[in-house]
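[recover] target loaded
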């Protein structure tokens, strides 16, 4: 009996070591053929541009093509779901960001779980929203904006790129913290919203940095704050909302990252992560991303996984309180 148990234990141990050795060997050899990266947003969008920049770095370092495929639709969720249904072998990766974190609670019939189904590889980049108001509103600070909105509840309105988009949810979070009631005006894209802000048709918006920055000198607009935890190098004079009383920890950054399907061998995750973190720390990549209004982020895979989980939880609370859902 004892001899049998000992034999079984030795077999189990040998199997475990064999599996670990195979995974390590797979990671050492990876990749041996082209790798596909699925992006759920169109070519030319910030996520697409950032993904292609990092894909070039992966290709140069690992010696195989990293090909970006755009599978567009449903706020990036078609592409995200497809990437997570792929074999967990490192040859199909996915990219996404804040839109996917919001989608977990926004869409009634979402067919993947951003926390449970992903093996996060690297946090690629981040870009804040900018709190910008029409100059004729007569406010020069966040404190004055809140005071006006409370004095005239329901009178101020704000534009966004559409229901459930990051600019919409950013203002919803702002409203909920400050106890405000401002009217949402959804547009088909932020460019149309900023045009109406310039024309005075709407009061304000939380505009993506890339949308807002070209208008920073326009006298028709007043820039009040950024929604990142710290100042951005692209608009260094603007304070973060997080520095304002009552807004400690406020963040509604437009972030992007790359993942593999759950179950992808850790050596593959680690190898890809090391390349991307090295690239993110380089001045060259920082300059490349700055053209798209983004900044690179150096973090461990575990730190990024924890950030994804916090973002999903945060936006779920905002969506629930706002009573928003898309079927």
């Amino acid at each position: 009996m004892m001899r049998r148990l000992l034999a079984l234990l030795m077999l189990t141990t040998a199997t475990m070591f064999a599996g670990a050795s195979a995974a390590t060997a797979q990671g050492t050899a990876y990749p041996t053929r082209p790798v596909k990266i699925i992006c759920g947003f169109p070519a030319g969008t910030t996520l697409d541009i950032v993904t292609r920049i990092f894909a070039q770095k992966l290709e140069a370092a690992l010696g195989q093509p990293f090909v970006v495929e755009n599978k567009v639709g449903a706020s990036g969720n078609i592409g995200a779901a497809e990437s997570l249904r792929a074999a967990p072998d490192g040859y199909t990766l996915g990219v996404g960001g804040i839109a996917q974190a919001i989608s977990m609670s926004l869409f009634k019939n979402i067919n993947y779980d951003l926390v449970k189904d992903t093996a996060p590889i690297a946090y690629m980049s981040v870009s804040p929203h900018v709190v910008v108001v029409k100059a004729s509103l007569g406010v020069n600070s966040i404190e004055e904006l809140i005071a006006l909105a409370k004095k005239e509840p329901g009178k101020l309105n704000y534009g966004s790129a559409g229901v459930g988009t990051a600019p919409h949810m950013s203002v919803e979070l702002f409203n909920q913290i400050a106890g405000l009631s401002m009217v949402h005006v959804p547009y088909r894209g932020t460019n149309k919203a900023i045009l109406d802000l310039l024309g005075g048709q709407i009061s304000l918006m939380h505009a993506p940095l890339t949308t807002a920055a070209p208008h920073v000198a326009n006298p028709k607009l007043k820039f009040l704050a950024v929604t990142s935890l710290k100042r951005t190098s692209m608009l260094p004079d603007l304070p973060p909302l997080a520095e304002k009383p009552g807004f400690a920890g406020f963040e509604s950054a437009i972030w992007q990252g790359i993942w593999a399907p759950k179950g992808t061998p850790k050596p593959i995750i680690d190898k890809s992560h090391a390349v991307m973190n090295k690239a993110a720390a380089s001045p060259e990549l920082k300059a490349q991303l700055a053209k798209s209004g983004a900044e690179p982020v150096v973090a461990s895979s575990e730190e990024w996984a924890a950030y994804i989980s916090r973002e999903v939880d945060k936006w779920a609370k905002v969506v629930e309180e706002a009573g928003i859902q898309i079927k």
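[recover] notes: The chain has two domains: 34-125+255-322, 129-243.
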